Amino acid sequence: MEKQRHIVMVHGASHGAWCWYKVAALLKSSGHKVTALDLAACGVNPEQVHQLKSISDYSEPLMDFMMSLPSEERVILVAHSFGGLVVSFAMERFPDKVSAGVFATAMMPGPDLSYKTLIEEYNRRIRIDEPDNPSTSQLFGPKSLSTYLYQLSPPEDLMLGMMLRRPHPLFSNDAIEREAVFSRNRYGAVPRIYIVCGQDNMVNQDLQRWVIRTNPPDEVKVIPDSDHMVMFSKPQELCSCLEEIAKKYA
Questions:
Q1: SUPFAM superfamilies given for it (predicted)?
Q2: pTM higher than 0.90 for the full model?
Q3: Helical spans, DSSP H, in 80-172
Q4: For residue 206, how far is the Cα from the chain centroid?
């Protein structure tokens, strides 16, 4: 009997564990153990965005989960979008508990790619039609969701996103940069796989390829016809990628 792998999924900005419902069901039906987490002030997590003072506060649910794992258990961490930063923190802090880090059109800083450089490149290349608002949080509007994130996803999943999204906390880039320190002997010891989403209107393929060139992962997989919300637009293809990764690295 094939051993059971534990796959832990981390959502992106304004989303929650709920966004993984299709992929989680597929992976569970194939015999995998699946955990989808809500980060702080996301999904059904009871904290409110104004209570979060740092990126560590936002990331705390994943760190608490990693600390709770039995010492001998290792997991595959799967990040979507902004969740890549949180998964990178977990890889640096718990390298012995992570079999692989998977970055699906996700932020992927590292020893040779600082968060500051990464976010500057994101800000230079990403243009979203949202009002200029220097507040402490942001929320994607319906037009941005339908145009940039969900344009190839089923309409019912777009509606779900509109109903369940929550404000995303905004921390200063300098504050995040001070915490986002990644070493070769810890973060760098964990295999990384990047999944390119070919029709992503939010983080376009050129930007994804720039991240890959600047901080090369161990492996690159491509889902050509996926929008930004790969778990909605191409759940079967994402599931297949994750099963291949689980078999190879876990």
A1: alpha/beta-Hydrolases
A2: yes
A3: 83-93, 115-125, 142-144, 155-164
A4: 18
Task: List active site positions.
Answer: 81, 200, 228
Question: Of all helices (H) and strands (E), which one includes residue 99?
Answer: strand 98-104
Q: How far apart are CA 104 and CA 138, in angstroms?
A: 22
In the chain, the amino acid numbered 226 is S
Quick one: how many helices (H) and strands (E) in the chain? 10, 8
The closest of 128, 122, 132 to 148, measured between CA atoms, is 128
CATH fold of 6-249:
Rossmann fold (3.40.50)
Query: Residue 183's closest CA among 89, 101, 111?
Result: 111
Sketch the domain layout of the chain as residue ranges.
6-249
- For residue 245, give the 3-state DSSP assignment: helix
- pLDDT tens digits, the chain, 250 residues: what are they? 467 899 999 999 999 999 999 999 999 999 999 999 999 999 999 999 999 999 999 999 999 999 999 999 999 999 999 999 999 999 999 999 999 999 999 999 999 999 999 999 999 988 765 544 557 788 999 999 999 999 999 999 999 999 999 999 999 999 999 999 999 999 999 999 999 999 999 999 999 999 999 999 999 999 999 999 999 999 999 999 999 999 999 8
Helix (H) or strand (E) run with residue 100 in it: strand 98-104
